[in-house]
Amino acid sequence: MSCKIHQEKENFRLKLRKMDFQRITSVIFICGVVLLSLNLPAKVTAGDIVHDDELAPKKPGCENDFVLVKVQTWIDGEEDAEFVGVGARFGTTIVSKEKNAQQTPLTLSDPRDCCKPPRKKLAGEVIMVDRGHCKFTAKANNAEAAGASAILIVNNQKELYKMVCDPGETDLDIHIPAVMLPQDAGITLNKMLLNGSSVTVQLYSPKRPVVDIAEVFLWLMAVGTILCGSYWSAWSAREAVIEQDKLLKDASEEELPNFGTGDSSSVMDINMISAVLFVVVASCFLIVLYKLMRFTWFFEILVVLFCIGGVEGLQTCLVALIARWFKRTGESFIKVPIFGAVSYLTLAVSPFCITFAVVWAVYRNSSFGWIGQDILGIALIITVMQIVRIPNLKVGSVLLGCAFIYDIFWVFASQSLFHESVMIVVARGDKSGEDGIPMLLKIPRLFDPWGGYSIIGFGDILLPGLLVAFSLRYDWLAKKNLRAGYFLWAMIAYGLGLLITYIALNLMDGHGQPALLYIVPFTLGTFLMLGRKRGDLKILWTKGEPERVCPHVCLESIEESTREG
Is the whole-model pTM more than 0.70? Predict the structure, then answer.
Protein backbone atom coordinates (compact mmCIF):
# COMPACT_ATOMS: atom_id res chain seq x y z
CA MET A 1 0.00 0.00 0.00
CA SER A 2 1.54 3.28 -1.07
CA CYS A 3 2.31 5.90 1.56
CA LYS A 4 0.28 9.07 1.65
CA ILE A 5 3.45 11.05 2.22
CA HIS A 6 4.64 10.22 -1.28
CA GLN A 7 1.28 11.25 -2.73
CA GLU A 8 1.50 14.62 -0.97
CA LYS A 9 5.29 15.09 -1.24
CA GLU A 10 5.22 18.23 -3.34
CA ASN A 11 2.79 20.14 -1.15
CA PHE A 12 3.22 18.59 2.29
CA ARG A 13 6.13 20.16 4.20
CA LEU A 14 6.03 21.29 7.78
CA LYS A 15 7.85 24.24 9.29
CA LEU A 16 10.14 23.21 12.10
CA ARG A 17 10.32 26.73 13.47
CA LYS A 18 8.27 29.82 12.81
CA MET A 19 9.98 32.11 10.36
CA ASP A 20 8.11 35.05 8.91
CA PHE A 21 7.76 35.36 5.16
CA GLN A 22 9.64 38.63 4.87
CA ARG A 23 12.74 37.18 6.50
CA ILE A 24 12.67 34.07 4.33
CA THR A 25 12.41 36.22 1.21
CA SER A 26 15.30 38.40 2.34
CA VAL A 27 17.56 35.46 3.12
CA ILE A 28 16.79 33.68 -0.14
CA PHE A 29 17.40 36.88 -2.13
CA ILE A 30 20.78 37.54 -0.58
CA CYS A 31 21.80 33.90 -0.71
CA GLY A 32 20.76 33.80 -4.35
CA VAL A 33 23.12 36.66 -5.12
CA VAL A 34 25.94 34.81 -3.37
CA LEU A 35 25.07 31.48 -4.99
CA LEU A 36 24.88 32.92 -8.49
CA SER A 37 27.72 35.38 -8.48
CA LEU A 38 30.52 34.20 -6.33
CA ASN A 39 31.77 30.81 -7.27
CA LEU A 40 35.25 32.30 -6.96
CA PRO A 41 38.47 30.37 -7.42
CA ALA A 42 40.64 29.21 -4.59
CA LYS A 43 43.53 31.60 -4.78
CA VAL A 44 46.47 33.15 -3.01
CA THR A 45 46.76 36.91 -3.32
CA ALA A 46 49.97 38.63 -2.41
CA GLY A 47 50.61 41.97 -3.99
CA ASP A 48 49.90 41.11 -7.63
CA ILE A 49 52.50 38.38 -7.78
CA VAL A 50 53.86 37.99 -11.31
CA HIS A 51 54.51 34.49 -12.56
CA ASP A 52 56.36 32.81 -15.36
CA ASP A 53 54.74 33.47 -18.73
CA GLU A 54 55.29 30.88 -21.44
CA LEU A 55 54.00 33.32 -24.09
CA ALA A 56 56.93 35.68 -23.48
CA PRO A 57 59.89 34.67 -25.68
CA LYS A 58 62.78 32.89 -24.00
CA LYS A 59 66.27 32.59 -25.36
CA PRO A 60 69.82 32.34 -23.98
CA GLY A 61 70.45 35.48 -21.93
CA CYS A 62 66.72 36.16 -21.69
CA GLU A 63 65.26 33.26 -19.76
CA ASN A 64 64.65 34.45 -16.22
CA ASP A 65 61.34 33.71 -14.54
CA PHE A 66 59.24 36.72 -13.67
CA VAL A 67 59.45 37.36 -9.92
CA LEU A 68 58.35 40.11 -7.61
CA VAL A 69 61.15 42.18 -6.14
CA LYS A 70 61.12 44.08 -2.87
CA VAL A 71 62.76 47.51 -3.06
CA GLN A 72 63.44 48.72 0.48
CA THR A 73 64.50 52.37 0.74
CA TRP A 74 66.47 54.42 3.26
CA ILE A 75 66.30 58.23 3.32
CA ASP A 76 69.32 59.93 4.88
CA GLY A 77 70.08 56.72 6.75
CA GLU A 78 66.52 56.26 8.07
CA GLU A 79 64.51 53.24 6.90
CA ASP A 80 61.59 54.42 4.76
CA ALA A 81 59.01 52.98 2.37
CA GLU A 82 59.15 49.60 0.67
CA PHE A 83 58.09 49.25 -2.95
CA VAL A 84 57.35 46.18 -5.05
CA GLY A 85 58.62 45.73 -8.59
CA VAL A 86 58.96 42.87 -11.06
CA GLY A 87 62.20 41.39 -12.35
CA ALA A 88 62.99 41.28 -16.05
CA ARG A 89 63.39 38.26 -18.28
CA PHE A 90 67.01 39.34 -18.90
CA GLY A 91 69.91 40.28 -16.61
CA THR A 92 71.21 38.56 -13.51
CA THR A 93 68.87 37.03 -10.99
CA ILE A 94 68.07 38.86 -7.76
CA VAL A 95 69.06 37.42 -4.40
CA SER A 96 66.26 35.83 -2.41
CA LYS A 97 67.45 36.53 1.14
CA GLU A 98 67.41 39.98 2.66
CA LYS A 99 70.68 39.41 4.52
CA ASN A 100 72.49 38.84 1.21
CA ALA A 101 71.16 42.04 -0.40
CA GLN A 102 73.41 45.10 -0.28
CA GLN A 103 72.25 48.63 0.48
CA THR A 104 73.25 50.66 -2.58
CA PRO A 105 72.93 54.39 -3.34
CA LEU A 106 70.21 55.34 -5.84
CA THR A 107 70.74 57.94 -8.58
CA LEU A 108 68.73 59.41 -11.45
CA SER A 109 69.72 58.75 -15.03
CA ASP A 110 70.77 61.56 -17.32
CA PRO A 111 69.19 61.33 -19.87
CA ARG A 112 66.16 60.17 -17.90
CA ASP A 113 65.14 57.35 -20.24
CA CYS A 114 68.71 56.01 -20.54
CA CYS A 115 68.17 55.34 -24.21
CA LYS A 116 71.64 56.88 -24.67
CA PRO A 117 74.66 56.25 -22.43
CA PRO A 118 74.50 58.31 -19.19
CA ARG A 119 76.56 61.50 -19.21
CA LYS A 120 78.42 60.65 -16.02
CA LYS A 121 80.12 57.46 -14.94
CA LEU A 122 78.71 55.57 -11.97
CA ALA A 123 80.50 53.76 -9.17
CA GLY A 124 78.19 50.86 -8.53
CA GLU A 125 75.03 52.88 -7.84
CA VAL A 126 71.54 51.69 -8.71
CA ILE A 127 70.27 53.86 -11.56
CA MET A 128 66.59 54.82 -11.92
CA VAL A 129 65.32 55.51 -15.43
CA ASP A 130 62.02 56.32 -17.13
CA ARG A 131 60.41 53.81 -19.45
CA GLY A 132 60.91 55.95 -22.60
CA HIS A 133 60.68 54.60 -26.14
CA CYS A 134 63.74 52.39 -26.58
CA LYS A 135 64.15 48.71 -25.77
CA PHE A 136 64.49 47.59 -22.18
CA THR A 137 67.67 45.70 -23.02
CA ALA A 138 69.18 48.87 -24.53
CA LYS A 139 68.60 50.72 -21.25
CA ALA A 140 70.17 47.88 -19.27
CA ASN A 141 73.24 47.74 -21.55
CA ASN A 142 73.75 51.51 -21.29
CA ALA A 143 73.39 51.41 -17.50
CA GLU A 144 75.85 48.52 -17.17
CA ALA A 145 78.35 50.29 -19.43
CA ALA A 146 78.12 53.38 -17.20
CA GLY A 147 79.02 51.34 -14.10
CA ALA A 148 75.56 50.81 -12.52
CA SER A 149 75.05 47.79 -10.29
CA ALA A 150 71.32 47.54 -11.10
CA ILE A 151 68.65 49.39 -13.06
CA LEU A 152 65.17 50.40 -11.89
CA ILE A 153 62.83 51.17 -14.80
CA VAL A 154 59.80 53.24 -13.85
CA ASN A 155 56.66 52.33 -15.76
CA ASN A 156 54.36 55.02 -17.16
CA GLN A 157 51.34 53.32 -15.57
CA LYS A 158 50.39 52.16 -12.08
CA GLU A 159 50.50 48.51 -13.14
CA LEU A 160 53.63 46.43 -13.49
CA TYR A 161 54.80 45.38 -16.94
CA LYS A 162 56.76 42.28 -17.89
CA MET A 163 60.06 43.22 -19.47
CA VAL A 164 60.94 40.74 -22.22
CA CYS A 165 63.29 40.54 -25.20
CA ASP A 166 62.39 40.98 -28.85
CA PRO A 167 62.76 37.82 -30.96
CA GLY A 168 65.55 39.35 -33.06
CA GLU A 169 67.67 40.73 -30.20
CA THR A 170 71.21 39.44 -29.83
CA ASP A 171 72.91 41.85 -27.39
CA LEU A 172 71.69 40.03 -24.28
CA ASP A 173 74.92 39.60 -22.33
CA ILE A 174 73.65 41.71 -19.43
CA HIS A 175 75.19 41.25 -15.98
CA ILE A 176 73.11 43.56 -13.81
CA PRO A 177 69.58 42.96 -12.50
CA ALA A 178 66.71 44.92 -14.06
CA VAL A 179 63.53 45.70 -12.13
CA MET A 180 60.39 47.56 -13.18
CA LEU A 181 58.62 49.78 -10.67
CA PRO A 182 55.05 51.11 -10.90
CA GLN A 183 54.55 54.79 -11.70
CA ASP A 184 53.61 55.89 -8.17
CA ALA A 185 56.78 54.34 -6.71
CA GLY A 186 58.89 56.16 -9.29
CA ILE A 187 57.21 59.49 -8.50
CA THR A 188 57.92 59.06 -4.77
CA LEU A 189 61.59 58.13 -5.29
CA ASN A 190 62.04 60.91 -7.82
CA LYS A 191 60.81 63.54 -5.30
CA MET A 192 63.20 62.24 -2.67
CA LEU A 193 66.18 62.47 -5.03
CA LEU A 194 65.25 65.94 -6.32
CA ASN A 195 64.97 67.18 -2.71
CA GLY A 196 68.64 66.41 -2.28
CA SER A 197 68.07 63.48 0.09
CA SER A 198 70.51 60.59 0.22
CA VAL A 199 68.54 57.57 -0.98
CA THR A 200 69.79 54.00 -0.73
CA VAL A 201 67.92 50.88 -1.83
CA GLN A 202 68.04 47.17 -1.19
CA LEU A 203 66.79 44.70 -3.82
CA TYR A 204 65.77 41.15 -2.99
CA SER A 205 63.11 38.65 -4.02
CA PRO A 206 62.12 36.40 -1.09
CA LYS A 207 60.68 33.01 -1.93
CA ARG A 208 57.25 32.07 -0.71
CA PRO A 209 56.76 29.02 1.53
CA VAL A 210 55.48 25.91 -0.21
CA VAL A 211 52.58 25.68 2.24
CA ASP A 212 51.31 28.43 4.52
CA ILE A 213 49.36 27.74 7.68
CA ALA A 214 46.59 29.95 6.27
CA GLU A 215 45.73 27.27 3.72
CA VAL A 216 45.38 24.67 6.48
CA PHE A 217 43.00 26.89 8.45
CA LEU A 218 41.04 27.77 5.30
CA TRP A 219 40.65 24.06 4.54
CA LEU A 220 39.39 23.45 8.07
CA MET A 221 36.97 26.38 7.80
CA ALA A 222 35.51 25.11 4.54
CA VAL A 223 35.14 21.51 5.75
CA GLY A 224 33.79 22.62 9.14
CA THR A 225 31.23 24.92 7.51
CA ILE A 226 29.87 22.08 5.35
CA LEU A 227 29.85 19.77 8.37
CA CYS A 228 27.76 22.20 10.46
CA GLY A 229 25.43 23.07 7.60
CA SER A 230 24.87 19.42 6.72
CA TYR A 231 24.00 18.36 10.26
CA TRP A 232 21.63 21.28 10.71
CA SER A 233 19.90 20.50 7.40
CA ALA A 234 19.62 16.79 8.22
CA TRP A 235 18.41 17.48 11.75
CA SER A 236 15.67 19.77 10.43
CA ALA A 237 14.61 17.17 7.86
CA ARG A 238 14.44 14.44 10.50
CA GLU A 239 12.38 16.62 12.84
CA ALA A 240 10.01 17.36 9.94
CA VAL A 241 9.57 13.64 9.26
CA ILE A 242 8.93 12.92 12.95
CA GLU A 243 6.31 15.67 13.07
CA GLN A 244 4.66 14.38 9.90
CA ASP A 245 4.55 10.84 11.29
CA LYS A 246 2.89 12.06 14.47
CA LEU A 247 0.20 13.93 12.54
CA LEU A 248 -0.41 11.05 10.13
CA LYS A 249 -0.62 8.60 13.00
CA ASP A 250 -3.43 10.60 14.62
CA ALA A 251 -5.38 11.34 11.42
CA SER A 252 -7.45 9.09 9.22
CA GLU A 253 -6.48 8.78 5.59
CA GLU A 254 -9.52 10.84 4.52
CA GLU A 255 -8.79 13.61 6.99
CA LEU A 256 -5.07 14.10 6.32
CA PRO A 257 -4.26 17.78 6.62
CA ASN A 258 -2.81 19.56 3.63
CA PHE A 259 -0.04 21.80 4.89
CA GLY A 260 1.30 22.72 1.49
CA THR A 261 -1.43 25.22 0.72
CA GLY A 262 -1.63 26.92 4.08
CA ASP A 263 1.65 28.16 5.46
CA SER A 264 4.76 29.03 3.45
CA SER A 265 7.59 26.56 3.80
CA SER A 266 10.97 27.58 5.12
CA VAL A 267 12.74 25.22 2.69
CA MET A 268 13.31 25.80 -1.00
CA ASP A 269 14.13 22.84 -3.25
CA ILE A 270 16.25 23.48 -6.32
CA ASN A 271 14.69 22.17 -9.54
CA MET A 272 16.21 21.30 -12.90
CA ILE A 273 15.39 24.65 -14.48
CA SER A 274 17.04 26.68 -11.74
CA ALA A 275 20.08 24.38 -11.83
CA VAL A 276 20.56 24.97 -15.56
CA LEU A 277 19.83 28.70 -15.32
CA PHE A 278 22.62 28.93 -12.75
CA VAL A 279 25.25 29.19 -15.48
CA VAL A 280 23.44 31.92 -17.40
CA VAL A 281 22.47 34.08 -14.43
CA ALA A 282 25.82 33.61 -12.69
CA SER A 283 27.73 34.52 -15.84
CA CYS A 284 25.65 37.67 -16.38
CA PHE A 285 26.14 38.76 -12.80
CA LEU A 286 29.88 38.06 -12.99
CA ILE A 287 30.21 40.28 -16.06
CA VAL A 288 28.32 43.03 -14.23
CA LEU A 289 30.78 42.73 -11.35
CA TYR A 290 33.71 42.79 -13.75
CA LYS A 291 32.49 45.91 -15.53
CA LEU A 292 31.15 47.92 -12.58
CA MET A 293 33.32 47.02 -9.60
CA ARG A 294 35.69 49.89 -10.38
CA PHE A 295 32.93 52.29 -9.35
CA THR A 296 32.89 53.07 -5.62
CA TRP A 297 29.09 53.20 -5.46
CA PHE A 298 28.76 49.70 -6.91
CA PHE A 299 31.29 48.23 -4.51
CA GLU A 300 29.42 49.84 -1.61
CA ILE A 301 26.22 48.18 -2.84
CA LEU A 302 28.03 44.81 -2.68
CA VAL A 303 29.10 45.58 0.88
CA VAL A 304 25.52 46.49 1.86
CA LEU A 305 24.14 43.29 0.27
CA PHE A 306 26.75 41.22 2.05
CA CYS A 307 25.90 42.89 5.35
CA ILE A 308 22.19 42.18 4.90
CA GLY A 309 22.87 38.55 4.07
CA GLY A 310 25.40 38.28 6.90
CA VAL A 311 22.94 39.74 9.43
CA GLU A 312 20.24 37.29 8.33
CA GLY A 313 22.66 34.37 8.46
CA LEU A 314 24.16 35.27 11.82
CA GLN A 315 20.74 35.95 13.30
CA THR A 316 19.33 32.64 12.06
CA CYS A 317 22.29 30.66 13.43
CA LEU A 318 22.25 32.40 16.82
CA VAL A 319 18.48 32.02 17.21
CA ALA A 320 18.66 28.31 16.35
CA LEU A 321 21.47 27.74 18.88
CA ILE A 322 19.99 29.78 21.73
CA ALA A 323 16.50 28.31 21.18
CA ARG A 324 17.88 24.90 22.20
CA TRP A 325 18.31 26.23 25.75
CA PHE A 326 15.46 28.77 25.82
CA LYS A 327 12.67 26.99 23.99
CA ARG A 328 9.86 29.04 25.49
CA THR A 329 11.48 32.33 24.40
CA GLY A 330 12.14 30.95 20.93
CA GLU A 331 8.52 29.88 20.54
CA SER A 332 7.04 33.15 21.82
CA PHE A 333 6.14 35.59 19.07
CA ILE A 334 5.15 39.21 18.78
CA LYS A 335 3.58 40.90 15.79
CA VAL A 336 5.83 43.62 14.36
CA PRO A 337 4.58 46.03 11.67
CA ILE A 338 5.93 45.20 8.17
CA PHE A 339 7.88 42.17 9.45
CA GLY A 340 4.90 40.24 10.77
CA ALA A 341 5.33 37.63 13.54
CA VAL A 342 8.82 37.79 15.05
CA SER A 343 10.05 35.76 18.02
CA TYR A 344 11.29 37.51 21.14
CA LEU A 345 14.59 35.71 20.69
CA THR A 346 15.00 37.19 17.22
CA LEU A 347 14.33 40.67 18.57
CA ALA A 348 16.96 40.08 21.25
CA VAL A 349 19.79 39.00 18.93
CA SER A 350 19.02 41.30 15.97
CA PRO A 351 20.68 44.43 17.44
CA PHE A 352 23.89 42.49 18.07
CA CYS A 353 23.91 41.07 14.52
CA ILE A 354 23.25 44.46 12.93
CA THR A 355 25.94 46.13 15.05
CA PHE A 356 28.42 43.38 14.19
CA ALA A 357 27.82 43.82 10.45
CA VAL A 358 28.03 47.63 10.62
CA VAL A 359 31.30 47.52 12.58
CA TRP A 360 32.74 45.12 10.01
CA ALA A 361 31.66 47.36 7.12
CA VAL A 362 33.37 50.36 8.73
CA TYR A 363 36.60 48.54 9.58
CA ARG A 364 36.61 45.99 6.74
CA ASN A 365 39.96 47.20 5.36
CA SER A 366 41.73 46.95 8.71
CA SER A 367 44.18 44.17 9.57
CA PHE A 368 41.46 42.35 11.56
CA GLY A 369 38.59 42.93 9.11
CA TRP A 370 38.91 39.41 7.71
CA ILE A 371 37.68 37.93 11.01
CA GLY A 372 34.29 39.63 10.83
CA GLN A 373 34.01 38.83 7.12
CA ASP A 374 34.61 35.13 7.75
CA ILE A 375 32.10 35.00 10.62
CA LEU A 376 29.38 36.66 8.55
CA GLY A 377 30.23 34.52 5.53
CA ILE A 378 30.18 31.21 7.39
CA ALA A 379 26.88 32.07 9.06
CA LEU A 380 25.39 32.97 5.68
CA ILE A 381 26.57 29.74 4.03
CA ILE A 382 25.22 27.58 6.87
CA THR A 383 21.86 29.37 6.68
CA VAL A 384 21.64 28.87 2.92
CA MET A 385 22.39 25.16 3.38
CA GLN A 386 19.45 25.04 5.80
CA ILE A 387 17.03 26.85 3.46
CA VAL A 388 18.10 25.68 -0.02
CA ARG A 389 18.13 21.94 -0.67
CA ILE A 390 18.91 19.49 -3.45
CA PRO A 391 15.87 17.14 -3.71
CA ASN A 392 17.66 14.32 -5.52
CA LEU A 393 20.95 13.32 -7.10
CA LYS A 394 19.73 14.18 -10.60
CA VAL A 395 19.30 17.87 -9.73
CA GLY A 396 22.56 17.81 -7.77
CA SER A 397 24.44 16.40 -10.75
CA VAL A 398 23.05 19.04 -13.10
CA LEU A 399 23.79 21.86 -10.64
CA LEU A 400 27.37 20.80 -9.96
CA GLY A 401 27.95 19.94 -13.61
CA CYS A 402 26.87 23.43 -14.68
CA ALA A 403 28.95 25.01 -11.92
CA PHE A 404 31.92 22.89 -13.04
CA ILE A 405 31.71 24.31 -16.59
CA TYR A 406 31.04 27.82 -15.32
CA ASP A 407 34.08 27.77 -13.01
CA ILE A 408 36.50 26.51 -15.66
CA PHE A 409 35.25 28.90 -18.33
CA TRP A 410 35.49 32.08 -16.27
CA VAL A 411 38.87 31.22 -14.74
CA PHE A 412 40.62 29.96 -17.88
CA ALA A 413 38.63 30.42 -21.09
CA SER A 414 37.59 34.02 -20.35
CA GLN A 415 41.20 35.11 -20.92
CA SER A 416 40.76 34.67 -24.67
CA LEU A 417 37.73 37.00 -24.68
CA PHE A 418 38.69 39.62 -22.07
CA HIS A 419 42.52 39.29 -22.19
CA GLU A 420 42.49 38.44 -18.47
CA SER A 421 40.78 35.96 -16.19
CA VAL A 422 37.47 37.58 -15.29
CA MET A 423 36.94 35.38 -12.23
CA ILE A 424 40.38 36.12 -10.79
CA VAL A 425 40.07 39.85 -11.42
CA VAL A 426 36.73 39.90 -9.59
CA ALA A 427 38.04 37.75 -6.73
CA ARG A 428 41.05 40.01 -6.15
CA GLY A 429 38.97 43.14 -6.39
CA ASP A 430 41.17 44.61 -9.13
CA LYS A 431 40.12 48.08 -10.29
CA SER A 432 38.01 48.50 -7.15
CA GLY A 433 40.64 50.03 -4.89
CA GLU A 434 39.58 47.50 -2.22
CA ASP A 435 41.35 44.45 -0.85
CA GLY A 436 39.06 42.00 -2.64
CA ILE A 437 35.29 41.68 -2.68
CA PRO A 438 33.48 40.70 0.54
CA MET A 439 31.75 37.53 -0.68
CA LEU A 440 34.57 35.12 0.12
CA LEU A 441 36.40 33.57 3.05
CA LYS A 442 39.98 34.67 3.55
CA ILE A 443 42.84 34.26 5.99
CA PRO A 444 46.09 36.27 5.97
CA ARG A 445 49.20 34.36 4.95
CA LEU A 446 51.10 34.52 8.22
CA PHE A 447 54.48 33.18 7.06
CA ASP A 448 54.50 34.59 3.54
CA PRO A 449 57.05 37.41 3.11
CA TRP A 450 54.75 38.93 0.51
CA GLY A 451 51.77 38.93 2.82
CA GLY A 452 48.37 38.77 1.16
CA TYR A 453 45.50 36.35 1.77
CA SER A 454 44.48 32.82 0.95
CA ILE A 455 40.87 33.00 -0.24
CA ILE A 456 38.03 30.72 -1.31
CA GLY A 457 34.71 31.73 -2.83
CA PHE A 458 31.38 30.97 -1.21
CA GLY A 459 30.32 28.85 -4.18
CA ASP A 460 33.24 26.47 -3.72
CA ILE A 461 31.84 25.64 -0.28
CA LEU A 462 28.12 26.09 -0.76
CA LEU A 463 27.50 24.19 -4.02
CA PRO A 464 29.25 20.93 -3.05
CA GLY A 465 27.94 21.49 0.49
CA LEU A 466 24.37 21.17 -0.77
CA LEU A 467 25.21 17.73 -2.14
CA VAL A 468 26.94 16.67 1.09
CA ALA A 469 23.91 17.85 3.11
CA PHE A 470 21.65 15.82 0.80
CA SER A 471 23.76 12.73 1.51
CA LEU A 472 23.37 13.11 5.28
CA ARG A 473 19.61 13.67 5.03
CA TYR A 474 19.29 10.50 3.00
CA ASP A 475 21.43 8.53 5.45
CA TRP A 476 19.33 9.59 8.43
CA LEU A 477 16.02 8.92 6.70
CA ALA A 478 17.29 5.54 5.51
CA LYS A 479 18.67 4.83 9.01
CA LYS A 480 22.14 4.08 7.63
CA ASN A 481 25.13 4.18 9.94
CA LEU A 482 28.12 6.36 9.19
CA ARG A 483 30.14 3.74 7.35
CA ALA A 484 27.24 2.25 5.39
CA GLY A 485 25.89 5.65 4.40
CA TYR A 486 27.04 8.29 1.93
CA PHE A 487 27.78 11.30 4.14
CA LEU A 488 31.16 10.17 5.45
CA TRP A 489 32.46 9.39 1.97
CA ALA A 490 31.05 12.62 0.54
CA MET A 491 32.83 14.63 3.25
CA ILE A 492 36.10 12.78 2.65
CA ALA A 493 35.73 13.34 -1.09
CA TYR A 494 35.15 17.07 -0.60
CA GLY A 495 38.13 17.37 1.74
CA LEU A 496 40.38 15.53 -0.73
CA GLY A 497 39.12 17.62 -3.64
CA LEU A 498 39.85 20.85 -1.80
CA LEU A 499 43.25 19.51 -0.75
CA ILE A 500 44.09 18.72 -4.38
CA THR A 501 43.02 22.28 -5.24
CA TYR A 502 45.64 23.71 -2.87
CA ILE A 503 48.28 21.30 -4.16
CA ALA A 504 47.53 22.46 -7.71
CA LEU A 505 47.59 26.07 -6.51
CA ASN A 506 51.11 25.66 -5.18
CA LEU A 507 52.30 23.68 -8.20
CA MET A 508 50.99 26.48 -10.44
CA ASP A 509 53.00 29.01 -8.37
CA GLY A 510 49.93 30.72 -6.95
CA HIS A 511 47.86 31.04 -10.13
CA GLY A 512 44.16 31.09 -9.20
CA GLN A 513 42.57 27.67 -9.58
CA PRO A 514 38.89 26.85 -10.17
CA ALA A 515 38.27 24.77 -7.05
CA LEU A 516 35.25 22.98 -8.56
CA LEU A 517 37.54 21.59 -11.26
CA TYR A 518 38.83 19.24 -8.56
CA ILE A 519 35.98 19.17 -6.00
CA VAL A 520 33.12 18.20 -8.35
CA PRO A 521 34.75 15.03 -9.79
CA PHE A 522 35.73 13.89 -6.30
CA THR A 523 32.42 14.62 -4.57
CA LEU A 524 29.90 13.83 -7.29
CA GLY A 525 31.94 10.96 -8.69
CA THR A 526 32.18 9.29 -5.27
CA PHE A 527 28.44 9.65 -4.71
CA LEU A 528 27.53 8.18 -8.10
CA MET A 529 29.94 5.24 -7.84
CA LEU A 530 28.83 4.32 -4.31
CA GLY A 531 25.15 4.61 -5.25
CA ARG A 532 25.59 2.31 -8.22
CA LYS A 533 27.64 -0.20 -6.25
CA ARG A 534 25.07 -0.35 -3.43
CA GLY A 535 22.05 -0.44 -5.71
CA ASP A 536 20.62 2.86 -4.42
CA LEU A 537 21.35 4.94 -7.50
CA LYS A 538 17.80 4.80 -8.91
CA ILE A 539 16.22 6.03 -5.66
CA LEU A 540 18.94 8.65 -5.14
CA TRP A 541 18.63 9.86 -8.72
CA THR A 542 14.83 10.22 -8.82
CA LYS A 543 13.18 10.33 -5.38
CA GLY A 544 16.11 11.40 -3.24
CA GLU A 545 14.68 9.76 -0.13
CA PRO A 546 14.04 6.15 0.89
CA GLU A 547 10.59 4.54 0.84
CA ARG A 548 8.81 4.82 4.17
CA VAL A 549 5.61 3.27 5.50
CA CYS A 550 3.10 5.64 7.08
CA PRO A 551 2.42 5.06 10.79
CA HIS A 552 -1.38 4.80 10.33
CA VAL A 553 -0.87 2.19 7.58
CA CYS A 554 1.35 0.19 9.92
CA LEU A 555 -1.30 0.33 12.66
CA GLU A 556 -4.04 -0.85 10.25
CA SER A 557 -1.87 -3.79 9.16
CA ILE A 558 -1.24 -4.77 12.78
CA GLU A 559 -4.95 -4.59 13.61
CA GLU A 560 -5.89 -6.73 10.58
CA SER A 561 -3.28 -9.32 11.55
CA THR A 562 -4.64 -9.38 15.08
CA ARG A 563 -8.23 -9.94 13.90
CA GLU A 564 -7.21 -12.72 11.53
CA GLY A 565 -5.28 -14.38 14.34
Answer: yes
551-564 and 213-250 helices, crossing angle to 10°: 50
Q: Where are the beta strands (DSSP E) in 28-177?
A: 43-45, 68-75, 78-87, 103-108, 126-130, 150-154
Instruction: Write down the pLDDT at residue 533.
Output: 93
Are 102 and 126 contacting, i.e. CB atoms less than 8 angstroms apart? no
Spatial distance between the Cα atoms of 278 and 196, rounded to a whole number of angstroms: 60
What are the tens digits of pLDDT across the range 327-383?
Answer: 776 667 777 776 667 777 888 899 999 999 999 999 998 889 999 999 999 999 999
Helix, strand, coil fractions of the chain, as percent rounded to 5: 50, 15, 35
Q: What whole-number distance in Å separates Cα of residue 126 and Cα of residue 361? A: 43
| Residue 476 C-beta-side C-alpha neighbours within 13 Å | 19
The per-residue pLDDT for range 214-229, each reduced to its tens digit, is: 889 999 999 999 999 9
Active-site amino acid positions = 407, 460
Amino acid (1-letter code) at residue 390: I
C-alpha–C-alpha distance, residues 308 and 361, integer Å: 11
**Residue 203 vs residue 330, higher pLDDT:** 203
Query: Which amino acid is present at 540?
Result: L
Kindly report the backbone phi and psi dihedral angles of residue 204, in degrees, each rounded to the nearest multiple of 5, phi listed first.
Answer: -155, 155
Q: Is the dihedral of CA 333, 334, 339, 342 positive or negative?
A: negative
Packed helices 393-408 and 516-534: angle between N→C axes, nearest 10 degrees: 160
Q: Which of 560, 547, 555 is nearest to 7 (CA)?
A: 547
